[in-house]
Specification:
- The two termini are 85 Å apart.
- By secondary structure, the chain is an alpha+beta fold.
- The chain is rod-shaped.
- Helix 2 packs antiparallel against helix 4 and helix 3 packs antiparallel against helix 4.
- The strands form two sheets. The chain has a seven-stranded mixed β-sheet, with helices on both faces. The chain has a three-stranded antiparallel β-sheet with strand order 2-4-3.
- Helix content is 39%, strand content 20%.
- Bound molecules: phenylalanine (PHE).
- Phenylalanine (PHE) binds next to strand 9 and strand 10.
Length: 375
């Protein structure tokens, strides 16, 4: 095919009959087919479309101008018909190609933008409540159901609240087994009317909150106190310089030892299970009279005797007793009118018994291998 047959008239190309016209159009059609084949992108396709059916300078326009219009009357019909066919063919083929190019582009975009759902996400491990926290919540639940409310108090205390007002005067031997951390400062102002400034200390038990609560409110009192307490102990499997207590105090008219015993037994059964039995053993605390240690049948052997209970079948749980009337003197309660009981639970110890934990230090080492077991 000549370089641009559409630029010349039929006469100039020596085409004089219908067969020549058909041949000429066949050539053009083949030329179009070859060009179309080579176009892969949208922009190439657009170029091709303009080159062929562009209104001003497209090949079809040139054929109309150069072949059809100047053709002799006897060929006009053949040229017109062939031109229509060519036009229909070019348009259909262009449209088909456009759809194919578009589909391929869509396909490529889809592949490019596809989310890779096989990629693993960011793991956010769930934490769990510390075993001591769980024990706190369990004990609080039990006493809340008995009508107690929960209070908290300062960890830095005055000697007055930690000792004196609890009927533990200076040089009382009971201070010895609560080896105390004293602060270098600040000093307690006047120690509530006592002569001389005395240094603050870290409370050795939660019992000071008994006094602070009774100072503020008249009976009936039913509170539990939760918190940290401090003693100068060297850390080992059963000692730490910090541990946790829950204090209990109930004061009202007509509270008897029976109420005390019933409350203690109810609590122990709720906490350790219905099979556990309790017993009260005489003991001594300066702020309770009588004082007892509450024992429970060993949770590990059921009372038969094992290593944990040293073959006795019993395990010591906590100290308690009826509030000593001397304490009422410090808070201006009338000891003839009111009576009550108090108890001090060691949270680590109760947790230890519930989950059979053999080392106190595990609570404070933050080792997830330990903590995970309580999730
Ligand atoms: N505060 C005592 C202790 O820490 C426990 C206790 C509390 C005893 C209340 C009797 C009544 O050892």
């Amino acid at each position: 095919m000549e370089i641009n047959p559409t630029a010349k008239t039929l006469a100039e190309q020596g085409v004089t009959d219908a067969a020549g016209v058909v041949r000429l159009f066949d050539d053009v059609k083949r030329q179009f087919g070859a060009e179309l084949e080579a176009k892969q992108s949208v922009s190439q396709w657009e170029e091709l479309r303009n080159a062929w059916i562009g209104r001003k300078s497209g090949a079809l326009t040139r054929i109309t101008e150069n072949w059809l219009k100047p053709s002799p009357p006897e060929l006009k019909r053949a040229v017109g018909q062939a031109l229509n066919e060519l036009k229909a063919h070019v348009e259909a083929a262009l449209e088909e190609r456009r759809a194919a190019i578009q589909a391929a582009a869509d396909q490529a975009a889809l592949a490019r933008e596809r989310e890779d759902l096989s990629l693993s996400g960011v793991v956010r491990p769930l934490g769990s409540r510390h075993p001591l926290r769980q024990t706190f919540e369990e004990i609080e639940r039990i006493f809340l159901s008995l009508g107690y409310s929960v209070v908290a108090g300062p960890e830095m205390e005055t000697p007055y609240y930690n000792f004196e007002a609890l009927n533990i005067p200076e040089h009382h031997p009971a201070r010895d087994n609560m080896d105390t951390f004293y602060m270098a400062g600040p000093f307690a102002e006047g120690a509530q009317g006592k002569p001389g400034a005395s240094p603050l200390l870290l409370r050795t038990h939660t019992s000071p909150m008994q006094v602070r609560t009774m100072e503020k409110q008249q009976p009936p009192v039913r509170i539990i106190v939760r918190g940290k307490v401090y003693r100068r102990d060297n850390p080992d499997a059963t000692h730490g310089f910090i541990f946790h207590q829950i204090e209990g105090l109930a004061v009202d008219t007509d509270i008897t030892f029976c109420d005390f015993k019933g409350t203690v037994e109810y609590f122990v059964r709720e906490f350790l299970g219905p099979k556990v039995k309790t017993r009260l053993r005489p003991s001594y605390f300066p702020f309770t009279e009588p004082s007892v240690e509450v024992d429970a049948t060993c949770v590990f052997c059921g009372g038969k005797g094992c290593n944990v209970c040293k073959q006795s079948g019993w395990i010591e749980l906590f100290g308690a007793g009826m509030v000593d009337p001397a304490v009422y003197g410090f808070v201006n309660y009338d000891p003839k009118k009111y009576s009550g009981f108090a108890f001090g639970l060691g949270v680590e110890r109760l947790t230890q018994l519930k989950y059979n934990i053999n080392d106190l230090q595990l609570y404070f080492q933050n080792d997830v291998r330990f903590l995970r077991q309580f999730a």
